[in-house]
Amino acid sequence: MGIIRLEDQEAVRGIASGFVPGLIAFLSIVLAINQLVLSQEFGSAGEIRSRIQEVKGYRRDVEQIASAKPSPVLPTGFLSLVVRIIKVKAVALEESVGPETDPEIRETIETFARSVIDETTQANESIEQARPGRINALLPVLEYNDSRQLFEARQLQHDSDKALQTETQQALSSLIEALELFSVARIQFRTTYTQRVLARLSRQLLYVGLPALVAVIVLGLLDTSLPSYISGELSVIIIVTLLSIAVTPLAVLAVYLLRVAIISERTIAAGPFVSRPTTVQTDRNSDFE
């Protein structure tokens, strides 16, 4: 169309000179990412031992509520176990409501329990179809609304505590505990996945950053007589190829950051706090009544 003329060597050199400081900044990004990832691994022997004990304690809590040992090691298997625990506790809650319970309260609890059972069934089917791995375990449960379920369970516990039988109260408390365990597991796997992605991003930026720096140096050193002994079409292909190599680090950075942002945005809620609009009742806060 003649709008962009890549044969203009001065314009190409101007573009290449602008890329140089940007690519140097990318090297700084690589260093910063490495420091961020490695900082999570540093610690004294006592700190590392404390982390291990906390993880073991969490796994014991899951195994205790599931009445199963040992708990799965792979993220997909572990999340599947916790989701099945939630389903079992929801079924127990539904079955614990006796005919002597107030009809309105019984209907509310049964409706809530049935919604939890349906959501856990869908989530578990998605997890079973996924391949082992952190991201494959996270994707099926990104939309699982454990925050809403926790809020509704705690609201039921507050509003109907005196009207419920002991068995129902215990079933509701067990369901709340299972939902809290699920929130911890999902956030933990999201954290480790993010660390792994950032480490991979650092390596990929290093792989593509050095060729990109070479490409912009070549672009800046191109002789203005290049079109005289190389055909115009070939010179355009050479320049476009070098420019493509030069922008590769930016493309890699955008892809990885978008991936991390999507995972983080969809799993940002923790516990009973809801970060996205939902159908949760917001007309009052039962905790302060």
From TrEMBL:
Membrane-traversing stretches: 12-33, 205-222, 234-258
Pfam families, per the entry: DUF7972
Record keywords: Membrane, Plasmid, Transmembrane, Transmembrane helix
InterPro entries, sorted: DUF7972 (IPR058278)
Protein name according to UniProt: Uncharacterized protein
Organism listed in the record: Halocatena salina
Lineage, top ranks: Archaea, Methanobacteriati, Methanobacteriota, Stenosarchaea group, Halobacteria
